[in-house]
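dumping the sequnces here before i forget
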Amino acid sequence: SQQGEEDPQALSIQEGENATMNCSYKTSINNLQWYRQNSGRGLVHLILIRSNEREKHSGRLRVTLDTSKKSSSLLITASRAADTASYFCATDPIKAAGNKLTFGGGTRVLVKP
Amino acid sequence: KAGVTQTPRYLIKTRGQQVTLSCSPISGHRSVSWYQQTPGQGLQFLFEYFSETQRNKGNFPGRFSGRQFSNSRSEMNVSTLELGDSALYLCASSLVTGDEQYFGPGTRLTVT
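..and the predicted 3d for all of it:
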């Protein structure tokens, strides 16, 4: 079963616009990670935010984390056609010993040129 | 540094057969995790190995098993294949617990 819910399930924007997607989860976490997947290929790690962090930036990506609401958001600014992909949030739950990511259902992003 | 490699990339098997998938982690990474991705269930955690020991296991039947070798390479095995086992199987490695995971390109298994 999936821990997280992602919203929206799909997003279509024009190149240059910003894309925002949200992730909600159920249990306490050590960290939350965002990944990108192109057309059924492997996942590419984008950013990791720890439970004691509220915001993190990496290039055109901005991630926020609200542990009180058990939610996170990923913002992609000035989107490009190459950003077209599925984006997944994944949580590392506190109770798990070792690595055991639980993924959300993903947001499919289409950036139109 | 070379990334995570998985072999084979594509596989077609018949119901009832068994299959072994291989994963080579990034050099120096001792944690290897396996995930199954299907359109219906999404990405689901199978198991994780660290220093040849299974540290975590997901909610999958006993037909799914794995192991890790002393060089950190890992294999997963699925016995008595069912149609529902058709999926993209992804392997990921990480340097330390709680760190980002680096995924391989996956093995696409089709069961007919």
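The first strand of chain B starts at residue 5 and ends at 7.
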